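Quick start: read one record
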Amino acid sequence: MYPDPVAQAVSALNIPIITAISLIIDNDIIFSLLIIGLSFIAVKEWKRRNLLILTLMFLFLVGFGIKLAVQESRPCTEVISKISCPNDYSFPSTHTLVAFALATALWKKPYRWLYVLFAAFVAFTRVYLGVHVLMDVIGGALLGIFGCLAIMMIWEKLPPKIKDPLAFIVE
């Protein structure tokens, strides 16, 4: 799969500060800590924060499952990227999925636009590094947004007899 023209143009950019930040975000451990840190900053009540983190973990697993089912090869297998090509599949971008799920969950918070900008920047970095194409990040963003909304709606509609056993974790 040869990258789309947008991905080609974005990955051809070479801006040292963006490269440095993109490499930090690319590190799975640092990215996970960043997401958890933002969750702790944005959500003070620990049970709601637990629900958010569990939601993000679940959506990551869903995204990873979709990667395994679709098995779309990464653009960096055919073109030069700024980092070594990851060994997994491309669609959807799980970094983007988690970032947009976080932004969706925090939409009612005071600094909502910062979370949206963060999510958009994460999506940009995935294409910038050459490890995703535009459809990968769009798919990740849509899965993150709609997945988070679906989980939030389902949680609110669950009857107490199902929610109560989980209340010590997330209520």
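Residues 4 and 25 are 23 Å apart (CA to CA).
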